Amino acid sequence: MNKFQILVVEDDAPIRNLIATTLKTHNYKYLLAQNGEEAIIQASTHDPDVVFLDLGLPDMDGVEIIKKIREWSNMPIIVISARSEDEDKIEALDAGADDYLTKPFSVEELLARLRVMQRRIALLQVDNNVNKSSIYTNGKLKIDYVAGCAYKDDEELKLTPIEYKLLCILAKNTGKVLTHKYITQKIWGSAWDSNVASLRVFMATLRKKLGNDSNSYIQTHVGIGYRMLKVETNIEDEMLP
């Protein structure tokens, strides 16, 4: 079974079944959603590798779904829609879609678009692995993954195991908004509401240990989650002896 997981968001049962059968035949894992609400829940809960998204859904427009997902994730989104006007394509792509496939479509073209997305993701993962070293630096923050230590202004931060794990999760996803569910799943293996409350406590203690400028590093997205910001290095500071 292909480890790649695709979320199929389509309210038309025959098309939804066609896509699902195609994916199953080619050994892809898949999730199904019939409306926008289900799509957002599935996307936030399962973090699929790619989303196939119809724009004409019964409860909300697909463009709105793209915008909502882009608030917290860069997961690739391939629009599959009967809307063929250039304005519709531009609107979806401007909202954050990665590709646009017009109905009716052939199964071969659908799979070809998916393979292109897989290759793009694989290249990004290679680049990330090449660029990532055992030392993470961001402004005055440094994490030594091998030693399991974090430093601020060259002074070691006295972090608890969970605080350190939380900091590493954010650091390894710098620039991305991580949902409460994603973070709690990574730390505790589940996304219970009680764990979200615990997450807020650990985030507060982590911020305190990072110091007065902690907001420069960790951004809160109310009701969604947190993001590690990339802190720009002051060139004048670098030139000081």
How would you characterize this protein structure?
With 241 residues, the protein is of the alpha/beta class. It has two domains: 2-129, Rossmann fold; 135-239, Winged helix-like DNA-binding domain superfamily/Winged helix DNA-binding domain (Arc Repressor Mutant, subunit A, Orthogonal Bundle), CATH 1.10.10. 46% of the residues lie in helices and 22% in strands. It has nine helices and twelve strands. The protein has helices spanning 13-25, 36-46, 62-70, 86-95, 107-131, 161-171, 180-188, 193-210, 235-239; strands spanning 2-9, 28-33, 50-53, 77-81, 99-102, 135-138, 141-144, 149-152, 155-156, 177-179, 218-221, 225-228. The strands form three sheets. A five-stranded parallel β-sheet has the order 2-1-3-4-5, with helices on both faces. β3, α3 (62-70) and β4 form a beta-alpha-beta unit.
Search tags:
241 residues; Rossmann fold; Arc Repressor Mutant, subunit A; five-stranded parallel beta sheet; four-stranded antiparallel beta sheet; 9 helices; 12 strands
What's a concise summary of this model?
The protein is about 45% helix and about 20% strand. By secondary structure, the protein is an alpha/beta fold. Helix 1 links the parallel strand 1 and strand 2.
- How many E-type strands? 12
Cross-sheet strand order for the largest sheet: 2-1-3-4-5
Helical percent range?
40-55%
Structural class: alpha/beta
> How much of the sequence is in beta strands?
15-25%
**Gap between N and C termini:** 56 Å
Sheet with the most strands?
Answer: 5 strands, parallel
Order of helices and strands: EHEHEHEHEHEEEEHEHHEEH
Q: What spatial form do the alpha-carbon principal axes imply?
A: elongated
Uncertain regions: pLDDT < 50 for 5+ in a row?
A: 234-241
CATH topology of the largest domain, which one?
Rossmann fold
**Over all CA atoms, what is the radius of gyration?**
21 Å
CATH homologous superfamily grouping of the largest domain: Response regulator
Query: What is the second-level CATH architecture of the largest domain?
Result: 3-Layer(aba) Sandwich
Could you say how many structural domains there are in total?
A: 2
Q: How would you state the average pLDDT, rounded?
A: 86
CATH class of the largest domain: Alpha Beta
With helices defined by DSSP (H or I, 4 residues minimum), what is the helix count? 9
Domain Response regulatory: 5-118
Keywords: DNA-binding, Phosphoprotein, Transcription, Transcription regulation
InterPro entries: CheY-like_superfamily, OmpR/PhoB-type_DNA-bd, Sig_transdc_resp-reg_C-effctor, Sig_transdc_resp-reg_receiver, WalR-like, WH-like_DNA-bd_sf
Pfam families: Response_reg, Trans_reg_C
